[in-house]
Amino acid sequence: METETASRLLDPLNIATIVVFFTCWWGYSLYAQYNSKRKSCLVSVLHQFRLAWMSRLLRRDNRIADASVMANLERSSLFFASSSLLIIAGLFTAFNYSEKAVGIIADFYLLAPNSQQEWEMKVIMLIVIFVYAFFTFTWSVRQYNFCSVLVGSAPLATERGVDENERQSYATHMARVCSLAANQFNYGLRAYYFAMAFCGWFLGPYFCMASSLMVVLVLYRREFRSKTFKTLNRGLVVNNHAS
């Protein structure tokens, strides 16, 4: 029985599913990171907006609105970090009731029924994904905290002894830290997207592979081809002229 279970876990189709899933996830992450430095996309455009934001921040003494925006960004990461903990708790519950869950989902599995060991393996992998998401979102929160400190310690517009080059350098560093925090938030969101794709494996390996490819297409379109990106890109041109 144990030999049969092990052979099913090491089934070529299951191994192919894992390979396709992580290739889609990590492959797209590397692709997006590489191309964000070489062509215009949501990440690069938003970094330019953050740079413009921080440059303008240094020209005014009243920064209440800036602190409010920073707090809103931080709350978004906190929300998803908290949600990750709740999901992890739910997955541990599903792990404890694996025998009942296998019986329920067996009617929906189109290829072959899940064994209890298969179910537990998939739940553990989902837990790992959401643990990764939790740490990613909490790191994003910390980086937004760092950015808040930078905003609080930024030189005032009327402060003497600070030349324009120093102000621009400070604004560049603030924008960079803010973008790093936003990037971590994006990585966490991608983990959520691919976790949804991974859930297709409970119905069958082909569902998981198809869902993974679909997530890649959705992410690519949103980051490189979406109307939102094009609108922001046009707004960046207007913003540069206004500066």
Automatic annotation (TrEMBL):
It comes from the Bacteria. The chain crosses the membrane at residues 12-28, 78-98, 119-141, 192-220. The keyword Plastid does not apply. InterPro entries: DUF599. Keywords: Membrane, Transmembrane, Transmembrane helix. Pfam families: DUF599 (PF04654). PANTHER family: OS09G0494600 PROTEIN (PTHR31881:SF6), PTHR31881. This is Putative membrane protein. It comes from Marinomonas balearica. The lineage of its organism: Bacteria, Pseudomonadati, Pseudomonadota, Gammaproteobacteria, Oceanospirillales.
